[in-house]
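Technical note accompanying the year-one report. For the benefit of new consortium partners, we illustrate the data format agreed upon in the data management plan: each record pairs a sequence with a structure-token string. No post-processing was applied to the example shown here.
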Amino acid sequence: MKKSYFVLVLIITFLGYVNSVRAQYTSKKVRSIHQAYTDSLKNVEYNYIFPVLGQGAYSEGYDIPYPFGIMANYFWTNQGILVNNLQLGYKNAYNDGNSFDLRPILDDEGNEILGFGDNSNTSYSYNVRPDLWVFPFLDVYGIFGFGSSHTEVNINRIGNKEFNLKSEVDQGIRTAGVGLLAAGGVGPVWISGDFNWTWNKPELTTNTTFVNVMGLRMGHVMKFRKHPERNISIWIGAMRVKMQSETLGELSMKEALPQEVWDNKDQTVADYWDWYNNDATIGQKLVADKVLTPFMDELAKRNGESVVQYGIDKKAVQEWNMLLGAQFQLNKHWQLRFEAGIVGDRKSFLASLNYRFLGLKRKSSE
């Protein structure tokens, strides 16, 4: 029975997945200098409900984390985004009959009239993650938080002509999600990975953005000689972020365009009409008259009170980036963790504080 349990744990350890904000894991000591501590684990009488198979893990000499946890996180990220399939709508604030619903900006051959340059998103969030180790190798968790996002979209072409127009949008975001993980190690070395799914609701969009995150990590634990429950863990890893592409929303032109655009609006409007009069095809002019010209008239003559409706398809420039991280575990209750995304288009920083506890005991059989 013990042998089959050991094989099960080992297989799931190296094929499983772990929370992207946790270096806590089930480990078995191999030729440890803390032999007395390792031997004491085998004598533990574990009478708590979770994790299931917890007694078996201790009997085999595995050091398992306390099953219940609550983690507070701060997360910052900056990444490039690719934008296409822009659609625009217009709610005119001056009742002059120019309002229209969402329309794609395509010429008569189906090509997009507007081209995009370098676009980016910078965001930060605060969240809490309650979790439970159901088995010594399998953890489930929730994600609940809020934050803020700054998105910059640059239009650098209209037809075949160079054109400069920048939109910047700042908005709050609410987040909720779930995740599954497993983790484990042999001696001081551990390997882990995770899957989580979050639903993010920016305040200026009409739809919720779905994001899937997968992380893979491998690390090394250095224990304190006189305090075997205290350790420092360092690791390297990789993370993939995949987001839902379609975004729909609306905001006033005053909110959508930064002050520098309004300060230089005469040049922007002049560039637009230069393209319209000298380079635009008949098909492009037909689309421009229905979609783009109302915006240029607003920019030239009004103060930006009209509402812009928009729809875009977006994705990260790079889905994968490299991670470096470290965690200090004071004891089996408290852990402090830092992680940075450093290689790749996405840059990120994570700081988290985790508190763990044992939870409910089993009912006595007596």
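Partners are asked to follow this layout when depositing records. The helical segments are 2-15, 35-42, 54-59, 253-256, 259-263, 265-278, 282-290, 292-301.
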